[in-house]
Design a protein that fits this description.
alpha+beta; Lambda Exonuclease, Chain A; five-stranded mixed sheet; three-stranded mixed sheet; 10 helices; 10 strands; 19% strand; globular; binds iron/sulfur cluster
Length: 280
Amino acid sequence: MVTKITTAGLRKFAYCPRWYKIQYKCGFNPSSPLKSKYPIGDALRGCLVSGSDADFRSRIGGLTSGEVIVEEKATFAEMIARGELLLKSALSWKDNIGEILWHEQLSKYCLNDIEILGYPDILAKKNNIITLYSIRVSYTSYTDKDRDADIIKMVIFKSGLEKILNVKINRLCAVSMIIRNRKNRISPNTKNVITEIQETPIVLERNLENTAIQSLSDMVAIINAGLFPTTGMQNGTCSWCPFGKQLQGQKFCDFPDEILKEFSETSLQRCNIDKWRDEF
Ligand code: SF4
């Protein structure tokens, strides 16, 4: 049997199988209050593909209609201005990474009877070194936890693109495009700047590639067996999971699947989570 899975789904599963099930099996995908890094990140990614900053603001305008932006320390207008600064640095970063071989196109690839669909960020060749870049727009630097969540996706993209393009990929690199969301970042006590681009090489230590591919097979076996444990509770994922929100004193993810399926067919699906509390 060929199982189809997306790299976005795999990442969710790696955070918490219950999260994956609610979203991909129950079809329950509420829109939660939005942080500005998401629409800014989407617009920035679009502009990186086009190679121009001309339509940055119009891309954000389209993406945020009807959404609620929640930012604790800076206004959304300030964040957009920071986004423009970040985009300028991102475009010059892209100008310096060499010949672009792949940029956000759909890749379809079969590995051990698993069909994987995904959008590798950027593959570039410079001085005969081919590097696969994974881009994130974030408020903070890259951590080991980010790396652990990215590793399977990077290994899959690497082996997929090597087959599709018939090339050997020499380097993996996470690129953090950082847009800080605090008001005063430049003060006598801090050297942090408002925007920054950081590269973090991802080294595939001995056997890590094989381990990642084995983990992929294990995940698909668990999905096919219908087992979805709530591992988010042990690894702290619940703090940012949209299904960790409370309704009637109960966490969303504690509701039975049948109830979540019912939710997924109602107007609740399209509401802001905080408004739900008023509906019950
Ligand atoms: S609230 Fe926690 S346990 Fe529940 S789905 Fe989200 S991450 Fe998993």
